């Protein structure tokens, strides 16, 4: 059995190229994709013969960070083995609780359900598939931030195949973040007060705009002029609209910056530093 036939049989009942947006969300999501509903529940994992999937790498192991407008191209690499060699392998990404009609609420599906395969040796190949994370279509709301799952399938040259509806991956889809820093007044006399302001914002996929990320711990860091590393001065909580504000005592020329460690839905970000001239 070739992978094209296997995928065709699967998509005939599952409609993988048209995963559904839940009706309750679609009403509130003007940017939700125009996707058809499933026609049947997805089958469980399946293995025929001795084909094995040994590794799946999503986006080179890095989180998929999505803003409010730009598309992100994501590569999924599937490594598989079979005594006869690998005919093909491919994958797609999905979000939800289970790989069933009622439980999937988001997907990234390749245009072609076949991989670009490179032979590792006589029994093993690594096949890559490209999908797109698009805030104008399939990344339609903040509910989709966090862990996604991988559906993958591989077939051997002897017709054996294996499919997995939730292959393990550590990659998350995250809301892009921004961070600013401003230290003033400048110049300032030694011993006087410096006020350091800034803002932590992140992409809001519901509105297609950036909005403040409130109640988050953000580090204020300082690097003395001529030094090579930053040190943490204090930790500040982001307030309304993600606003940051604190005061420090002027001691020496140097650079201030805010740094955010990130969360499960939002990536780490460090602001451009602001130089302060202490006289």
Describe the structure.
- The chain has 279 residues and is mainly beta.
- The protein folds into two domains: 3-174, no CATH class; 176-276, SOR catalytic domain (Immunoglobulin-like, Sandwich), CATH 2.60.40.
- The protein is 6% helix and 47% strand.
- The strands form five sheets. A five-stranded antiparallel beta sheet has the order 1-11-10-5-6, with helices on one face. Strands 16, 17, 19, 20 and 21 form a five-stranded antiparallel beta sheet that branches.
- Strand 19 (254-260) and strand 20 (269-270) form a beta hairpin.
- The relative contact order is 0.17.
- The model is unreliable at 1-42 (pLDDT under 50).
Q: Strand arrangement, largest sheet? A: 1-11-10-5-6
Weakly predicted, low-confidence segments: 1-42
Shape: elongated
The major beta sheet can be summarized as: 5 strands, antiparallel
| Domains, number | 2
Query: What is the count of β-strands?
Result: 21
Helix content: under 10%
Return Rg in Å.
Answer: 24 Å
- Beta-strand content: over 45%
Oligomer status:
single chain
User: Helix/strand-derived class?
Assistant: mainly beta
What's the rounded overall pLDDT mean?
87
